[in-house]
Amino acid sequence: MASGPDGFVSDPRYAAEFTRARELFLAHPGRWRVIYHYDGDGIASASSALRALARLGCPAQATPLLGVERERMVELLRTTAGPVLVVDTGASWLDLFARNPHPVVVLDHHRYPGVPHPPALPEHVAFVDPLDWGVDGMEEMCASTLTWLFTVFLDPVNWDNAPWGLSGAIADRQHVGGFRGLNARLTEEASKRSLIAQRPGLALFGRTIGEALARSIDPYFAGLSGQPEAVAQHVRGLGIEPDRSLSSLGPAELARLTEDLRAWLVAHRVLPEFVAVLDQPRWFVPALGMDAEELANLQNATGRVGTPGVGVALALGDAGALQRAREAEGTWRDGILAGLRRLEEGGLNSMSALQWFASPDTTLAGTQAGLAMNYLLDPDRPVVVFSEGAGPVKVSARGTLRLVARGLDLSAVCRIAAQTVGGEGGGHKVASGATIPPGTRDQFLSVADREIAGQFHAHAGGARA
Question: Domains, the chain, ranges and CATH?
């Protein structure tokens, strides 16, 4: 029988944090501002929160943040004369919320100074972070599953926020190798309630096999993705016409295609956990008539092309949002493919402990870095990407869980390197970011390279001891 969420975690801080947040939330039934990160996880988090607020009859204003923007947060708090809900960001700015005159609820899964012991906060601030109760916010719970769970604490009717919980977790790549920890518990609960259904299938999306392969970014097939003619020739070599749909393949043909694509990834040094993305179990959302990964792509794309509000509107039932999201997804996919093709053809720079590149695509750079790390680059060194615009330089850093097991902590690297050059940074051990002043890239890289080398060396020394 399906159960409530109260006993999901035994640590008493789990119930205490959610209770404090819920009480603060319900005590202020007026207009809320929801501040969220503009990526797929943040958009999905805002989607669940806004759906829950609507059910409570509370008007709300949703505002995205484009990165680590402390000054932007300061301005938003200054101009908001009412309660604020912050999702998928905020853990680094608890000092700001403590000084804010209005209530603030923060739902975040990122590391903060002093983790897992948050600072003492005034009564008008509630901070919920799975790191405080021994749940890994990098692998076992992201902001969207955290927000989904919070809305269930508000009212069990919000179990139907399952699509947005899953889509955000997939956008944050917590589905790789299958959901774990609280993500798995929530997925199991949603499945019991028939809100999602597990199905076999390939991680390929398109009207035809040729289109799906040529436009595939996750997995990215070096030598095939972004190259329709190469795809057509390769698929015909398997005895399959590229203009057929995936659903038209018989069992033997599908098995042949799957095995061939797995072998292709292995031949290009893709790690087993990312090879498995191709045909690991998939989750279908009956209420939306689409795969949860397709939903993740739609929401992630709207944020990355600069229209995160469309991703939120999709969750709120806006009649035209789906078509606008599909258009955004096409633009997003084209941009990522172009960036990965540039890397495949050259343009990567190497240092002793890291690899880096520059991307003109400010909002796509982090995704390009993550996918390149998984499918293209040297798996033994993390990658850093820089995007320069009119203001501060945006930095994204990506590694793998294998590198984290060797001692990598990109959250610390980005924080230390950014502070050295007058910027700020943070995030997760495996994926992090920063904003730094123009002209400080080389100094940032020098510090980051030294920090990463030191982390690997310290871990290796500890392992030998």
Answer: 12-195 (3.90.1640.30), 209-278 (no CATH), 347-464 (3.10.310.40)
Residue 280 CB partners (closer than 8 Å, separation 6+): 175, 177, 178, 203
Residue count (the chain): 465
125-128 and 104-107 beta bridge pairing: parallel
What pTM did the predictor assign?
A: 0.86
| Closest by Cα among 320, 317, 321, 319 to 308 | 321
Under 8 Å between Cβ of 170 and 293:
yes
Question: For the residues 246-261, what does the mean pLDDT come to?
Answer: 96
pLDDT band at 2 (very low <50, low <70, confident <90, very high): very low
Helix 162-171 vs helix 40-55: crossing angle, to nearest 10: 160
The confidence score (pLDDT) of residue 450 equals 98
How would DSSP label each residue in 90-132? -GGGHHHHHH-SS-EEEE--S--TTTTSPPP--TTEEEE-GGG
Q: What is the pLDDT of residue 427?
A: 85
pLDDT at 465: 55
Tell me if residue 35 falls in helix, strand or coil.
Answer: strand
Helices in 215-290 by DSSP H: which ranges? Answer: 228-236, 251-267, 272-275
